[in-house]
Give the backbone structure.
Amino acid sequence: MSFDFMLLIFFIGFIGSFISGMVGIGGSIIKYPMLLYIPPLLGFAAFSAHEVSGISAVQVFFATIGGVWAYRKGGYLNKSLILYMGISILLGGLIGGYGSNILAESTINIVYAILATIAVIMMLLPKSNDDNPDLQEVTFNKPLAASLSFIVGIAAGIVGAAGAFILVPIMITVLKIPTRMTIASSLAITFISSIGSTVGKLATNQVLFIPAVIMIVASLIASPLGAELGKRMNTKILQRLLAVLIFATAVKIWWDIF
């Protein structure tokens, strides 16, 4: 692997992880297409879809660690929310990942497209209670949070993602969690969700060691930087940025399907 190729991988990992830390998603929704399409576009060897998913899974695991570390102070991490939704999405992800073996590739793509489309619609609905300045007083419907994250986990397990790109709109729109608490807590939930996929990819030898290490280093540097910027940005801007990212992904997936 040439130095230029390694530099390109680092750049992809850095950009994707920076955005990941800023808007509170694992980043696979951003980095997957970048890893798949950018290297061959610039004349480098192309990764296979399995290799990209393996690299992305490991990278998301470490990117979310960096983001959570940046948000560890300030009261943004809601431990109760993380516990209820984290355990549920992990269980759902294990079921979805196992069940995906019996589904056709086209079915998996359709599930992913439906998830992204639902997320876009939810981002257009009335938003969270950002006017509430006291994060200690934030409450949520625990059974609803656990049920929704379990369903998201099943769908995310099917498509091989951590699920934060649909989890974040649910937390903002349905559970009415303040945006910055949503971003911080979703990183922790995504970390829990990514454990299963990371173990699965490593166990089935789908992870290329050198690209994965490069992406991990980029993640650990960029994700905390993105999280720090996210804490300072206007919440409306963060919501719009997330909506644009999810919308672009939804369009791309539906385009590939048809």
